[in-house]
Specification:
about 70 residues; mainly alpha; about 60% helix; elongated
Length: about 70
Amino acid sequence: MEVDNSTSLLLTQYQSTRKLSLDIAEPLQPEDQMIQSMPDASPTKWHLAHTSWFFETFVLAEYLPGY
């Protein structure tokens, strides 16, 4: 599969954003990422999973034929 410049840019941006998200969460212990510290703030683990779901649903499924 040939990768065009826009696909390459999207991949680079996704990888950079994902790395930043994981870097922010890295100092937390696994137990810290499952706690909902207040009613209006979801746990870190939820945010990491939700952003992955968002990317898969609105980018991969939409623009990658056969995904």
